[in-house]
């Protein structure tokens, strides 16, 4: 087999890259370890920056997003029961975010790729990368027990945090930065109307909680839990009781209890691998970086990586220029580190850290009071939440 760009991973990063390149007539093959149904079964992000919406428009897959997505002009921060609204639209000269589940984004991209007739090989086992430090990289994989070789010009490592691509880079050529948080997020998806019309992030005496949504009839809720917590110890009733004890009273009173259709615990980490290019292998999305979901940046960073990488690859094939590819890692990392900072800052502001001293608890409260009483402070939060420029 041969293609121009081999893409490892059919998550949002891999599918978006495939779609943008296919629309320019650049041949791609996506190799995905799991089945398409399994990929769609993973419940993850829910908030899209304006930049990502524009990327999906550019990819020709934004029709359902504009029909079903919920445009939000603001969100609320709550601290020990006090609530402050961040007026995204007013503080950023009109920018907003769109609530539209990652599952839907992935589904739209899968349908578009199938319509383009581009090749995606699901349940591809034992994917291995070869010779990406030379001019003739290859990818080998096993499908239905048969090992196949895929020759290509470039490899895009879009295979997430636990993928094979980053692990294929020789130890001495990559540097990793990491912080693991001493808690996780227990998330519930339920077909009940949201408790508030905008997102509410709360830091209460009992810990962090987030009220989000997927539509007017589907809510997404999270509560901070200790790292050793087991999801089977959390009945729906226990979850909703805990949620209502952590959000402001008016929000708690508006929570509709209903059976969970998904319930899981996700660990929180900050992680960056530098650089993001190794010869003809380019890392993008979670394969190169992870943010705690508090800032709603993970999926959106994957989109900006793909913005830079697709531009570089299109320039290579259209203009025979490698300027974009040469600058990919530097451009992507400049934006990644700023999103890492914001996600770390939001996580530090809104969670209970077991090791926090009374002084550090006062710092959290002072941070909230500053933002709640400063237009400049609120504007800083708004500018980062809608997404810094690409
Ligand atoms: P993905 O991990 O989505 O996709 C990688 C793909 O590569 C997967 O389909 C995987 O099966 C495949 N793969 C892995 N190894 C492979 C191999 N060896 N061969 C072939 N294929 C392989 N972000 C937010 O903004 N908000 C959130 O609330 C949020 N919640 C999250 C909750 C969880 C539990 C997780 C894990 C992440 C969450 N994220 C959230 C971040 C998430 O949305 C990611 O940023 C997003 O999925 C990044 O997309 P990709 O880079 O495509 O990686
Ligand atoms: C979600 O709806 O899943 C969501 C929204 C905002 C976040 C994290 C998760 O910061």
In words, what does this structure look like?
The protein has 390 residues and is α+β, with helices and mostly antiparallel strands. It folds into two domains: 5-72 and 96-178 and 269-346, FAD/NAD(P)-binding domain, CATH 3.50.50; 181-267 and 354-386, D-Amino Acid Oxidase, Chain A, domain 2 (2-Layer Sandwich), CATH 3.30.9. Helix content is 37%, strand content 28%. It is built from twelve helices and 20 strands. The protein has helices at 12-22, 36-41, 50-58, 63-68, 88-91, 102-116, 236-246, 249-254, 298-319, 323-350, 358-372, 375-386, and strands spanning 5-8, 28-31, 47-48, 70-72, 75-79, 82-86, 97-99, 119-121, 125-130, 138-143, 146-151, 154-157, 175-190, 200-204, 207-215, 218-225, 260-274, 277-278, 281-283, 289-290. The strands form four sheets. Strands 6-5-14-15-16-13-17-20 form an eight-stranded mixed β-sheet. A six-stranded mixed β-sheet has the order 8-2-1-12-19-18, covered by helices on one side. Strands 3-7-4 form a three-stranded antiparallel β-sheet. A hairpin with a 2-residue loop joins strand 15 and strand 16 (218-225). Helix 1 (12-22) runs parallel beside helix 6 (102-116) and helix 9 packs antiparallel against helix 10 (323-350). The radius of gyration is 21 Å and the shape is globular. The model has no long low-confidence stretch (mean pLDDT 97). Bound molecules: arabino-flavin-adenine dinucleotide and P-hydroxybenzoic acid. P-hydroxybenzoic acid is lined by residues 45-47, 199, 212, 220, 293-294, 296.
